[in-house]
Design goal:
The structure holds three protein chains of three kinds. By secondary structure, chain A is mainly α. Chain A contains 21 helices and two strands. Chain A has a two-stranded antiparallel ribbon with strand order 1-2. Classes of the chains: A mainly alpha, B mainly alpha, C mainly alpha. The interface between A and C is large, with 60 and 50 residues.
């Protein structure tokens, strides 16, 4: 079933692209089926290790296998991706071909999380770029060409060192194949590990995004279609933390150790830096772009702490922020539908006209700034607990962002929804949007109030990672 | 031994000519000279070391030189018909 | 102590109100929505009382997060707080049924009001610190929603935002405390922490740091100096909000947090001294500012600030049960004061400036009685509630140091002064306005009657030992807080202190009564101008913190664009290199040939030299 789940979106997307007359319903059905599969896989998870594993030789002479499987983290992220894609194709006001591209991208994302072979991981990692670029090219804003250049170049140039490192990891480490199980049994050591880790790091720092390689993100979001669908998919593509957790750190623990101090600093600094300057963002896309960098900085901080709490927090926060980040972009798309603009000023006071939308926005905003009870908090708390053990000062630095987040979020929100209402009335949520709201708020509350659902599977993963460094959690 | 010096001399004359002549034909001629100088040096090596492989290579060179001259002259004639000049300095369309 | 599902039910009831009124509020008619909300709170009150009388209760969901359960715990301490929150909360809900009459957001108001109660209960009942934190930030959210209830006015939205952001500064302290305690002890459950701290084996300085972080959180939530700037602006919200959240309950959460962690604070001279200092500063700051305000709600808001300072001093000198006792008495008389103010505002059709009030005793007899009792209780007149708890604070302060007692006595004098000023300006003299004042409806009067009764009688559960009457509350609370050895003052000293504070209060009330009826002398007017501006605290913060922060945001924003330009520059570097190399493509055959020959020479040379 995992294979169906993995490849269905691509096939559906291709079909839809060639026959757009199938319409949005087809996309919704496909996304719903994908989500159902992800949930079913989650429900059937035994709780230990990598489930649903399968591998077939692809290029056995070189040691490349088509190998997939899902552990706790992978399942959480599969559900997150499935949910976001469903919400996106359901709600976004876009041409059908756009939906098709989103579906195609979904397979890439699912593959990144499910791949158990390093070459396939790389292939999925790079291939996912293509639909993202196409979405930006066909449906982007006036200066999309520049954004495409920046986005593509950052990603591709970043990935080249990773490719080199991939080969180094296999051949210098002495593994028999590119399978995860084989590679983990032969971790790199010494100088090779340090350099190879750097290779991975360059690519993954772009994809986290980690300061200072986040610079591509604002223009990417600014130029994307105002419905928010491409931005939502882009948010799902922030797989850096996952890849570091799954591949980079376990394969080169000594390498990671060398870089740990710097990485902790970059993560903490980036978290605060991005949250601080989000206050000056002139439009919602830019604000959300920097908010995303800030959240990922916090998640990265947790992962780089190298202990159980930090890892659990990082992964949980990753899943949660994928959902609320994407939902927030889609939400802004709903606002755009009504006002035709994504700028924060002038003051619109929309709450008078759209009280339901206002409440939805409030929920999303509060989740974004980590209000306890909503999905952003459990991850952030675990990151805090993990990071404090390693560096109280950097934890303090990073978590100053909670103050900055309240500032940027509430200020922008106030301009958009509160204060003097604009004269022109706009419609409140229709049935479809109510459905979106219900699902989103439900997930925010579920993940916020009952994190045990997922953390029980993340905990052993966190302990395993901590064990690489001496086991103290 | 003296033939080696002779071939070196021939090569240098050919090189000098290739670099300084503007006309395509003369440049070509100089290049041929260099080719033959190389062949000559091969023969003298063969005489010195007694190896016969060098002489076989010279036979190859002569054959290839002939073919190459045919093609090259054909090219030059075609260019001349097109551009009315064989001055190498004016034939610069292949610039990067 | 039983493990029972009924405990989370106390939280679920008001939470249900939040959801129902939030989703279906528009379909529920006016007083019904208010009564629904009020009865749900009353339900929580009785449920909590029942559980408390059975000796307490607990409930837990293990491994909510790895190593952290979702646990609730009702003991005597949280029980008392629960009684106050739901009891006084119920009364204020009922009062609000009348006060909010006619407001288009009626149901929305009660929905948020219920949310607040639910969050406050989570805060009080939480045994696991992250659970407390859910309630902690939850009340912050409710406070934001309620302060900015009429958000179409920019000033209301701004005040709400300010409250939330300043609170968050304190919240960071709470978070760091959790981080530190986890790294020290591997648990965040208060019941487990008590044991581990007693067991010893850790660095005392580190524990002090943890206490300090908790203190930062408490300072933010309880609006102590220096994070007090949000409280006066919070008066932008409807008066029931000011009464419930910013007087009786939420702002006391900081005090509660510290008392809950008495096991960390006691015996720590540094923290005690710090808490006492902060409390003193706040007590004086609040009192002095109150004496300069013209808006009736701001007058009362600053008095709350001052009383919170008293509570902090109580915590600082180790009088933990007294701090809670003061929370209880204060809840009654401060809520009464706010609601009386609200009744006056309501009577005058929305007027809030005391310069346009006066003489209300003639028009609003019932409200006047409320106001009188509130004044006396707030001013610390014996034998009302405010006297006994304040006196207990003074007694413990005397033990800490006679200088402290003296300063606190001064603060009580100011308390009497601001109370009587409020009374005189609102109820005495001649009416200076143009409205037609009308008394409040019964639904607003009855809660005040009950509060008045409480303001009179609630103090009797905590009488000093020298009076031959059982002190109920001290043993009740100490059972939960913990026994901390305490030398009782000699009988004579105790009586002297009691009599001094009683006499001083009467004298101050009388003097103030006379003083505030006259025209203010010039020195008072100068003082007033500064006090009105909160002694320029807001301006100071704006210049030193807020504007530089905004400026930095701008700077960083431009800087980030520069960062991108930097990367682009790297790209053009490559481009430049490319065009440099492209100059080799001359197209000149001779040039290429020359290159070939040079290369040939070099190669041969290299081969020969090897």
């Amino acid at each position: 079933m995992i294979h169906v789940g993995l490849w269905l979106p691509l096939l559906a997307g291709l079909l839809l692209f060639m026959l757009p007359s199938l319409g949005r319903t087809f996309a919704i059905v496909s996304a719903a089926v994908s989500l159902a599969i992800a949930v079913a896989l989650f429900a059937g998870y035994g709780g230990q290790g990598v489930a649903y594993a399968s591998q077939t030789p692809f290029l056995p002479e070189v040691g490349v296998y088509y190998a997939v499987g899902l552990d706790g983290a992978g399942l959480l992220l599969w559900i997150a991706v499935g949910l976001v894609v469903l919400l996106g194709v359901w709600i976004a006001e876009v041409p059908v071909r756009f939906l098709a591209l989103a579906l195609m991208m979904q397979t890439g994302l699912l593959g990144i999380f499910a791949a158990q072979d390093l070459i396939f991981f790389y292939a999925f990692f790079e291939a996912t770029l293509i639909p993202a670029l196409l979405m930006l090219w066909f449906y982007g804003g006036a200066e999309r060409l520049k954004a495409i250049y920046i986005f593509a170049l950052f990603t591709l140039v970043g990935s080249l060192p990773m490719l080199a490192a991939i080969f180094a990891v296999r051949y210098l480490g002495g593994a028999e194949s590119f399978l995860y199980t084989d590679l983990v049994a032969h971790p790199l050591t010494g100088q090779a590990a340090v350099l190879a880790f750097l290779g991975f790091l360059v690519a993954l720092a772009v994809k986290t995004p980690l300061f200072p390689l986040h610079a591509w993100l604002p223009s990417f979001h600014q130029q994307n279609h105002p419905s928010g669908l491409a931005d939502a998919m882009g948010t799902l593509y922030k797989v850096g933390v996952f890849a570091l957790f799954k591949w980079a750190i376990p394969l080169m623990p000594e390498g990671f150790k060398e870089w740990q101090g710097l990485l902790l600093f970059l993560a903490a600094f980036g978290a605060l830096y991005a949250a601080w300057l989000a206050f000056s963002a002139p439009d919602w896309k830019t604000l959300l772009a920097y908010a995303g960098v800030s959240h990922m900085g916090v998640a990265a901080l947790g992962l780089f702490s190298g202990n159980m709490e930090g890892t659990v927090g990082a992964l949980y926060l990753l899943g949660a922020s994928m959902i609320y980040g994407s939902a927030m972009f889609l939400f802004v798309g709903l606002v755009y539908k009504r006002t035709g603009s994504l700028d924060i000023l002038p003051v619109r006071g929309l709450a008078r006209h759209t009280p339901a939308l206002y409440v939805l926005g409030m929920f999303l905003l509060m989740a974004m700034i980590g209000l306890p009870g909503l999905s952003g908090f459990p991850g952030e708390l675990m990151v805090l607990l993990g990071a404090y053990k390693v560096s109280p000062w950097l934890t303090f630095l990073a978590f100053l962002a909670v103050i900055a987040a309240a500032a940027y979020a509430l200020t922008a929100f106030q301009k958009l929804f509160q204060e003097t209402p604009q004269a022109q009335a706009v419609p409140d949520m229709d049935t479809r949007e109510w459905g979106f709201a219900a699902v989103t708020v439900g997930v925010l509350l579920l993940m916020g109030l009952y994190p045990k659902l997922f953390t029980v599977y993340l905990e052993p993963l966190g302990k395993a990672l901590a064990a690489l460094f001496g086991g103290a959690s | 031994m003296i033939w080696l010096v002779a071939s070196a001399l021939l090569f240098s004359i050919g090189a000098y000519g290739a670099l300084t002549r503007r006309t395509a034909i003369l440049m070509f001629l100089s290049i041929e000279l260099m080719l033959n100088a190389a062949a000559l040096s091969l023969i003298s090596f063969s005489k010195l070391t007694g190896s016969l492989e060098a002489q076989v290579v010279v036979l190859f060179i002569i054959a290839i030189a002939a073919a190459e001259v045919a093609v090259g002259l054909g090219l030059i004639v075609a260019i001349f018909r097109r551009r009315e000049t064989t001055s190498v300095d004016e034939l610069r369309q292949l610039r990067g | 102590m039983q493990e029972t599902f009924l405990l989370p039910l106390t939280i679920a009831l008001p939470l249900l109100g939040f959801v129902l009124l939030g989703l279906f509020g528009k379909r529920i008619a006016e007083p019904a929505a208010g009564w629904l909300a009020s009865l749900l709170v009353l339900g929580s009150f009785f449920l909590g009382l029942a559980l408390l009388l059975q000796g307490g209760a607990s409930w837990a969901l293990p491994d909510w997060l790895p190593g952290i359960p979702f646990s609730l715990h009702l003991d005597n301490l949280s029980g008392v707080m629960l009684m106050v929150v739901t009891g006084v909360g119920f009364l204020i809900h009922v009062w609000a049924i009348g006060y909010m009459h006619g407001d288009p957001g009626y149901s929305r108001f009660f929905s948020y009001f219920n949310l607040f109660i639910a969050a406050m209960l989570v805060l009080i009942l939480g045994d696991s610190l992250p659970v407390v934190f859910i309630g902690w930030e939850g009340v912050g959210l409710a406070s934001y929603l309620l302060i900015g209830f009429w958000y179409h006015e920019r000033v209301n939205a701004d005040s709400a935002r300010k409250a939330f952001i300043v609170n968050r500064i304190g919240d960071l302290g709470f978070l760091l405390a959790m981080g530190l305690l986890w790294s020290m002890f591997g648990t965040l459950s208060i019941s487990e922490l008590v044991e581990k701290v007693e067991a010893g084996g850790y660095s005392f300085t580190t524990l002090t740091l943890a206490g300090f972080f908790l203190l930062v959180g408490a300072i933010g939530k309880s609006a102590q100096v220096p994070l007090m700037v949000w409280l006066p602006d919070a008066m932008a919200g409807p008066t029931p909000v000011s009464a419930l959240i910013h007087a009786a309950t939420m702002v006391t959460a900081g005090v509660y947090l510290l008392v809950r962690h008495a096991f960390i604070l006691h015996d720590d001279g540094f923290l005690s001294g710090l808490i006492v200092t902060i409390g003193l500063l706040t007590a004086f700051y609040g009192a002095l500012c109150s004496l300069g305000q013209w808006d009736i709600k701001r007058i009362v808001a600053y008095t709350t600030l001052s009383q919170l300072g008293f509570m902090f001093v109580a915590v600082g000198v180790g009088a933990y049960w007294v701090a809670i006792f003061h929370i209880v008495t204060h809840a009654f008389f401060k809520a009464l004061m706010f609601m009386t103010s609200g009744s006056v505002i309501h009577a005058l059709g929305g007027e809030q400036d005391v310069r346009k009030m006066g003489g209300m005793r003639k028009y609003l007899p019932a409200t006047h009685l409320h106001g009188l009792i509130a004044t006396f209780a707030s001013g610390g007149l014996v034998p009302l509630a405010g006297f006994w708890s304040k006196d207990a604070i003074l007694a413990y302060s005397f033990e800490y140091g006679p200088w402290l007692w003296f300063l606190m006595l001064l603060a009580s004098v100011l308390a009497a002064l601001y109370s009587i000023r409020w009374y005189v300006l609102v109820f005495w003299g001649e009416y200076r306005g143009k409205e037609h004042p009308h008394e409040s409806p019964a639904v607003m009067l009855w809660p005040n009657h009950i509060l008045m009764g409480g303001a009179i009688g609630v103090g009797f559960m905590g009488l000093p030992y020298v009076i031959d009457y059982k002190n109920f509350i001290e043993p009740f609370l100490t059972k939960a807080i913990g026994e901390f050895p305490h030398e009782k003052l000699p009988v004579l000293t105790e009586w002297v202190l009691i009599l001094t504070s009683a006499v001083v209060a009467i004298a101050a009330l009388w003097w103030g009564f006379r003083f505030f009826q006259q025209k203010m002398p010039a020195w008072y007017e100068r003082f007033q101008a500064a006090a009105l501006q909160g002694f320029y605290a807001d301006a100071l913060y704006n210049t030193l913190l807020v504007n530089p922060a905004k400026g930095l945001a701008e700077l960083l924003f431009e800087g980030d664009k520069g960062l991108l330009a930097g990367f682009a520059g790297l790209g053009s570097l490559v481009g430049g290199l490319g065009s440099l190399l492209a100059r080799l493509e001359t197209g000149s055959l001779r040039f290429y040939l020359a290159g070939l020959l040079v290369a040939l020479v070099l190669l041969v040379g290299w081969g020969v030299l090897r």
